[in-house]
Amino acid sequence: MSKKSVAVLVSGGVDSAVVTELLSRNPELDLNLFYIRIGMDNGEGDCSAEEDIEMCSLIARNYKLPLEVVSLHQEYWDNVMDYALRTVKAGLTPNPDIMCNSLIKFGFFEERWGHEFDFTATGHYARTIFDEQNRKWLGTAVDPVKDQTDFLARITGDQLAHLMFPLGDLPKSSVREIAREAKLPNAFRRDSQGICFLGKINYNDFIRRHLGERPGPIVEIETGRKLGEHRGYWFHTIGQRKGLGLSGGPWFVVRKNVQDNVLYVSRGYDTEKQYGRTLHLAEMRFITMDPWGSDAENDNGVEVRFKNRHSPDFLPGRIRKVDGTADEYIIESDVKVQGIAPGQFTAVYDSDARLCYGSGIITGAQNSSGLWTTK
After folding, report:
1. Contacts of 290 (CB under 8 A, 6+ apart)
2. 5: which of 49, 213, 232, 260 is 20 to 30 A away, CA to CA?
3. Annotated active-site positions, please?
């Protein structure tokens, strides 16, 4: 029987190195390593590329595997970075990591290189699960703290059909242990943090370079009292606490008036103004298929779990389709949800938080606390 060919996306981190270790143990697989270079030549978002590539080269030599460094500079800028800047300028909250997975790793890479292989494998903490009809679903990882299905919730069924996630059944501690036992050169390397395209660049510096500054008032929403001044609403997001420069807090951003350039805040950890229970989702996309059909059109909706931000918690609620629309849904949460930020993605799961069905984009529609984010 001929071997199955696998394109392994490596980053220089321990997770993708352990993927290489695990897959190399299977003699029926033929592995080829790929590093996607997305840092811009003008210094934007270097992502420590040279150090990462050196580490990937060590892994490749260790397993006697080919390593190809492929460039998707311009594609990343034209799609992910442009999307992030447009979204921020509109007063919304982007998620460039979700768009990177959908458009770059499993989009342009697959179109140009990955399609030549039987599978593409990555170090994401997720699983693929087959049902009784042999349909392939995106499944959550056994380690809820490391689960990354919310970052994958915008991929398509065709993309999922070609993917492997070898780490989905492992807790992070086991991944580190495997790396130590295999004497991998990055066994003790720290996990990368932050937004993928920024690397070591400060987020506010990046936004300032492209959007500049636009000073405006910070106003206490309950009283209308001006508390200070911000340097531009695009530096802030709904639910944000740090970086406001206000005393007597804690203060949370609860609203942005983009038209008048006003940032509204509310004081206290338990202020109701930072919570809501209703999430209005547009552009809902399902990965494998619509699992609900007409059930979601009922007034009571369907029981689900969801994430409106990257977190170990799968929040309980019910989802229903908005009458007369093709892709708009409303989630009524069973618990208070902090920082409902329009523009952000919400990943939607089955009631057991085992399968990720897909995702929608939180809109600026009014939430249950009566607040709007734009005007």
Report:
1. none
2. 49
3. 100, 196
